[in-house]
């Protein structure tokens, strides 16, 4: 397909005011009647034909204003329907198409999952249901009649409010009619039909509107939907309190389905979720699962305003709804849990996914300017970096200025299909500032590098920061302009207290934030009586890669004393990362670095009784092998990194042993499992202790892990211990894996954890193990969760084995991508993106990886999804 360019945007030629759908569900022959009230767009090109999108559609009939059209009046293919010369006035277009939901393995459009009918329309799935101007700037009011066999689909759900329901006399069929009063783009359309159990609740909005809440799940699983329902109600309240956003329909339904390409989908009034982000019980879900459920329930709910009431003009603006909504769900989780720990987790995710993306051939701006396949842009850059850009706005404007901008945005653009420019203009107007330079965050790709040099002058009692910024070239962008970087900082005095920030022009650095906007810039602070240690980029105020002249001693000091918890964590991580890089390099000659500074920092953290256990657990968890690879940047040897990291784990396990052995029993569980953040934090720290203690694989430590596994009364502890055994205790591994399987064999979401864990074992036999598991009865290539758990974990969470020196890992993934592409291109393309860092590898692996990506690229008949990732990966 031809690339689509942002600069080519034109308003639609025809608008749709109302859509009436009549959908007769049938496993193989679903009939869709669509009645579209259309009119020429005054902003479109005059005299245009009506051109509708389609995808694999079969047209049965089309009429205009009630008259069937002659064959010469229109052209129809599976991918489009054009009415050549419609009268240039309001018209009624009626279209009949037939579909086979059972044959829809792409899981886009209308398909079947575990015997139920469901839909996924974002980004371009509605055109697989009926011919339509399937673009987000065409907003219409939908009425949907759904008909089905009562036996097969007693539950029939649509967008909006249910306005009618009934039996069809003399048949075994019934119907419901749904009306959604809010104009919406087609990607927010949804329907569900099936035999489902329901958890019901209700919510009273701030202005007293009574909303019926429903979560629908596979029969027998309703007892696992309670946490999701609780999270939903908390989300609804929070959005009212923090953003003034109130729900706007009488019903809000969520349906959990087992086969889903993404995490979840924010269809108006009818969210559809991957069941893994709804279903939870202490026996089957980990603390991380609970946290994800809470975040994603909130995310999809928050889209009701940021995405649905205000939608995107075109798909280039995807970050307008996604970056903003991720920011909102991050804030929600921060308020519900621990703010610093949430920030640490978010930054870890940002670095591991987004920084990696930015550093390779798939780098793209937060708002891309061109795409071949929009499905490939649901990325860490659009989502996570997009959220960082919104966070920076808040840092720059302050809480009040930010809220004023958001209020103006809701006010000015409610009902619109908006752009990033519209969004930024609200903040500029509400605060009387110019955001032209700031807008580069949306246009320039790559991670900015910030080098900071601090120097204290005793004579003038001044502290000077010299700052240089650099944005490296990325695909299609050789030269970059300087960015606006909000750098939150503190100058930490010898006792750990923050010194006042008085700039030499007499101004305070407002809210502790310096605004860096030049390629090189200096700031001088006055009245600095003693040598301070600069705590830079506090709270990760800007998504940059920061280097500085802080010494190892400075970092140890910050890890112990900084008042900013994020930077305490970050100082220890920086020490660990520097150690791992040096230790990796030392394996090919040179002196091995000393771990003493890191041991000192982590001992202090473990000893500090005032710290939140969840924070300590994060501090103890070392940078990942992928983090180290990214830091090294070129000629990467994954085996050397793995070995260096293993060494450091053993060193820490030994050096911290007394503290770890003291902490572990102190955190033993009491009472029954509760998923709250405090309890989860204690489990996280206890497990981190267990893990480090087992690093040397001493018999007593392995015995502790076995006991932990056997005594666990919840999935968090059980799975964690299983992972310790699987990675570090080859003798105990198989019996533990077998016991786990026997216990959970009937629970696909738990078996996914079992698949994922085995796929991550860092030994050569894992490839054969993964191959064998693809033949396991619990595995299915048709289910995205299974594929991601087993094969996705191998490619993205097992660096030494995906990057086997013989290239067999690359070959296996390329083979799988090709096998999957015909069935589900989106999942196949995701899997192929595992090659995104291939250029950073050492020469032998680099050429083996390149050859496999090229083999994929050269295969005839690829989907646009896979063809696009392959081509960009090689560019
Ligand atoms: N729009 C979905 C989300 O919430 C993804 N398709 O991110
Ligand atoms: Zn979203």
Automatic annotation (TrEMBL):
Residues 553-874 form the Peptidase M1 alanyl aminopeptidase C-terminal domain. Coiled coil: none annotated. It is an enzyme of class 3 (hydrolase). Keywords: Aminopeptidase, Hydrolase, Metal-binding, Metalloprotease, Protease, Zinc. Residues 227-440 form the Peptidase M1 membrane alanine aminopeptidase domain. It holds the Pfam family DUF3458_C. Residues 91-188 form the Aminopeptidase N-like N-terminal domain. It catalyses: Release of an N-terminal amino acid, Xaa-|-Yaa- from a peptide, amide or arylamide. Xaa is preferably Ala, but may be most amino acids including Pro (slow action). When a terminal hydrophobic residue is followed by a prolyl residue, the two may be released as an intact Xaa-Pro dipeptide. It comes from the Bacteria. Its cofactor is Zn(2+). Belongs to the peptidase M1 family. This is Aminopeptidase N. It comes from Ancylobacter amanitiformis.
């Amino acid at each position: 397909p031809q690339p689509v360019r942002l600069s080519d945007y034109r308003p639609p030629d025809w608008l749709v005011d109302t859509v009436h759908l009549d959908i007769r569900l049938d496993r193989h022959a679903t009939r869709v009647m669509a009645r579209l009230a259309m009119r020429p767009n005054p902003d479109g090109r005059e005299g245009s034909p009506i051109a509708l999108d389609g995808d694999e559609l079969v047209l049965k009939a089309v009429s205009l204003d009630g008259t069937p059209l002659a064959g010469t009046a229109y052209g129809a293919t599976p991918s489009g329907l054009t009415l050549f010369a419609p009268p240039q006035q309001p018209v009624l277009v009626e279209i009949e198409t037939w579909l086979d939901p059972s044959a829809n393995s792409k899981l886009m459009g209308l398909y079947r999952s575990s015997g139920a009918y469901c839909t996924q329309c974002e980004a371009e799935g509605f055109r697989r249901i009926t011919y339509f101007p399937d673009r987000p700037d065409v907003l219409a009011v939908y009425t949907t009649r759904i008909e089905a066999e009562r036996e097969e689909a007693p539950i029939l759900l649509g967008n909006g409010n249910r306005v009618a329901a009934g039996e069809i006399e003399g048949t075994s069929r019934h119907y419901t009619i749904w009306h959604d009063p809010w104009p919406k783009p087609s990607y927010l359309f949804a329907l569900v039909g099936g035999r489902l159990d329901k958890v019901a609740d209700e919510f009273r909005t701030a202005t007293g509107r009574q909303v019926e809440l429903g979560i629908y799940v596979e029969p027998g699983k309703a007892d696992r939907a309670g946490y999701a329902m609780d999270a939903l109600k908390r989300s609804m309240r929070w959005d009212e309190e923090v953003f003034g956003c109130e729900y706007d329909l009488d019903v809000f339904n969520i349906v959990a389905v087992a086969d889903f390409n993404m995490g979840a989908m924010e269809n108006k009034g009818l969210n559809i979720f991957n069941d893994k982000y709804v279903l939870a019980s202490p026996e089957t879900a980990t603390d991380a699962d609970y946290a994800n459920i809470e975040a994603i329930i909130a995310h999809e709910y928050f889209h009701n305003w940021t995405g649905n009431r205000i939608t995107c003009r075109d798909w280039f603006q995807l970050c307008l709804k996604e970056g903003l909504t991720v920011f909102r769900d991050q804030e929600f989780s921060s308020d519900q849990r621990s703010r610093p720990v949430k920030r640490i987790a978010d930054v870890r995710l940002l670095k591991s996914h987004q920084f990696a993306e930015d550093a390779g051939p798939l780098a793209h701006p937060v708002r891309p300017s061109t795409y071949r396949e929009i499905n490939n842009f649901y990325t860490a850059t659009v989502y996570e970096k997009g959220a960082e850009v919104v966070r920076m706005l808040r840092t720059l404007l302050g809480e009040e200025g930010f809220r004023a901008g958001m209020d103006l945005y809701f006010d000015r653009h409610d009902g619109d299909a908006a752009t990033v420019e519209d969004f930024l203009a609200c903040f500029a107007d509400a605060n009387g500032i110019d955001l032209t330079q700031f807008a580069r965050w949306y246009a320039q790709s790559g991670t900015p590098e910030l080098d900071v040099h601090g120097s204290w002058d005793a004579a003038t009692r001044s502290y000077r920061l010299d700052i240089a910024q650099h944005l490296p070239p990325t695909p299609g962008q050789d030269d970059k302009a300087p960015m606006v970087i909000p750098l939150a900082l503190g100058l930490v005095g010898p006792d750990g207290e923050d010194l006042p920030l008085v700039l030499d022009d007499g101004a305070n650095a407002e809210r502790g934030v310096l605004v860096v906007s030049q390629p090189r810039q200096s700031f001088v602070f006055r009245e600095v009586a003693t040598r301070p240690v600069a705590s830079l980029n506090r709270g990760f105020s800007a998504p940059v890669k920061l280097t500085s002249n802080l010494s190892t001693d400075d970092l140890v000091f910050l890890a112990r004393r900084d008042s900013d918890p994020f930077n305490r964590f970050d100082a220890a991580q920086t020490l660990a990362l520097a150690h791992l890089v040096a230790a990796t390099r030392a394996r090919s000659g040179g002196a091995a670095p000393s771990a003493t500074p890191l041991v000192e920092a982590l001992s202090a953290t473990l000893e500090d009784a005032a710290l939140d256990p969840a924070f300590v657990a994060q501090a103890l968890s070392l940078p990942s092998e992928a983090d180290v690879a990214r830091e090294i940047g070129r000629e990467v040897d994954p085996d050397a990194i793995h070995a260096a990291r293993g060494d450091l784990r053993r060193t820490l396990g030994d050096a911290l042993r007394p503290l770890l052995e003291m902490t572990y029993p102190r955190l033993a569980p009491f009472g029954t499992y509760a998923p709250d953040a405090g309890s989860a934090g204690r489990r996280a720290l206890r497990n981190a202790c267990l893990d480090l203690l087992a690093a040397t694989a001493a018999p007593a430590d392995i015995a502790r892990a076995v006991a932990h596994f056997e005594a666990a009364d919840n999935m968090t502890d059980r799975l964690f211990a299983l992972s310790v055994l699987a990675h570090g205790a080859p003798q105990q591994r198989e019996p533990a894996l077998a016991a786990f399987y026997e216990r959970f064999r009937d629970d696909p979401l738990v078996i996914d954890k079992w698949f994922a864990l085995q796929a991550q074992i860092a030994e050569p036999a894992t490839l054969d193990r993964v191959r064998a598991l693809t033949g396991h009865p619990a595995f299915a290539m048709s289910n995205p969760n299974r594929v991601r758990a087993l094969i996705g974990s191998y490619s993205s969470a097992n660096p030494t084995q995906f990057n086997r020196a013989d290239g067999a890992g690359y070959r296996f993934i390329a083979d799988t991508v090709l096998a999957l592409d015909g069935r589900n291109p989106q999942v196949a393309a995701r899997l192929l993106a595992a090659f995104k860092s291939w250029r950073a590898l050492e020469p032998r692996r680099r050429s083996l990886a390149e050859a496999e990506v090229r083999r994929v690229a050269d295969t005839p008949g690829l989907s646009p999804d896979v063809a696009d990732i392959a081509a960009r990966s090689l560019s």
